[in-house]
Amino acid sequence: MHDAHSAPAAKPVALAVGQFAAAVMAEKLPASTAKVCAQLMIDVAGLCVAARNTDYVQACLASVLSDGPVTAIGHTRGMNAYDAALVNGTAAHGEDFDDTFEGGPVHAGAVIVPAVLAIAQQRGLDGNAVMKGVAAGVEIMCRMSLVTPQAMHKAGFHPTAVIGALAGAAAVGATIGLDGPRIARAMGIAGSLASGIIEYLADGSWTKRLHAGSAAQAGIRAALLAEAGFVGPPTVLEGTHGFYKAFGPSREPDFSHLLDGLGTRWVTDGVAFKPFACGTMTQPYVDCAIELAREGVRAEDIVSIVCNVGEGTVHRLWEPLALKQAPPNGYAGKFSTPYCIAVGFIDGDAGLGQFTNERTQDAAIQALAAKVSFVIDPENPYPNEFTGHMRATLKDGRVIEKHRAHMRGGAHEPLSDEAILAKFRANARFGGWDAGRTNALETALAAIAAGGKVDFTKVEG
């Protein structure tokens, strides 16, 4: 009979994750996974260009203190990897038009792609190193988001921000060739760098935009510290004082979502690319609203729109209802389902142009948003599926229901390659680029995805 004290300790979860990340090989990725990684680079780069002239990106650029060899996409100034990751991550997530992950939800591309591209460019690494890092980081970030569903938001934290720091550390570690134990140490360090609260919901402040960039930056810092021998706890994920206890204390972590099939079943393949520039869970409702308008219903004909929603979405997208029906600015509108429904109905879209401060003050949109309310549906499958269900009551007594079983752009109804490229090109145009610059960036990214050099020298800012 073995003494209980002599039983071998279970392998730290971060060590298993680190060993996975270290073992990823770009040339052995499933074709479907490699394709998503390449699409993520295209999507993120287009969003960086779209946001290049915004006030929040300009503020990030003004904070840059470094010179260096790394590109902030859409700008001519060179900087170091830390600053480029901050600028690119903030720009990519800034308009909430970046990828998401049903079940999480997290925005992996806006953290992982900026972190990996920055360190690869800083060190002169090739596209195989980039693809390895992107694949490892996105897979880890998406899986980590499933371990304590809804608990991080409930605790007041932004999952993209806090999970992103650890996944970013693993991604950068994989990119620069750290072994499994060093990547585990890097994740342990990143646990103390992770941050990001969701108080931006109060007034549409800019901090959510910063979260992806700060997580990317933290990931680089943690990986380079681990590379240099700095020590972080490999029990960072499951420890008594670990990551999930700190950021998701209301649920017991289920690490099977992180570990089962890791390296053989790629959840990255199910990453969703957004068709609309707003909060993830609002997107099916926007499609419902557009469909309703296309049937000839007029805004003035509508008495009320009542939406069936998942309880976990209410505190971010629906409450306080009076504020959500009249968001104070365009950024706040992105996290208001009533506004997104109203602007989608009236404009037939919820793209970048629908979330200006001026658009949110439009009288017709505000009048329609004021008619939109919600009821909690205990059968709603959130967070496993992002659905849309609304009932519109009209002045003539008719009641019209619209339902979406899932988010367009996600695993059930993915956007085509052509649609993702079209989004990239439209975002570049929105950022003021001509076709020549856009094509040069597209070519540079395709070369990286094929294993070539990380080279943006032909892309003018």
Descriptive account of the structure:
With 461 residues, this protein is α+β, with helices and mostly antiparallel strands. The protein has two domains: 10-270, 2-methylcitrate dehydratase PrpD, CATH 1.10.4100; 280-404, 60s Ribosomal Protein L30, Chain: A, CATH 3.30.1330.120. It contains 21 helices and six strands. The strands form two sheets. A four-stranded mixed sheet has the order 4-3-5-6, with helices on one face. Strands 1-2 form a two-stranded antiparallel sheet. A hairpin with a 6-residue loop joins strand 1 and strand 2. Helix 8 (159-176) runs antiparallel to helix 9 (180-190). It is globular. The chain starts with 12 loop residues before the first helix and ends in a 12-residue tail after the last helix. The mean pLDDT is 96.
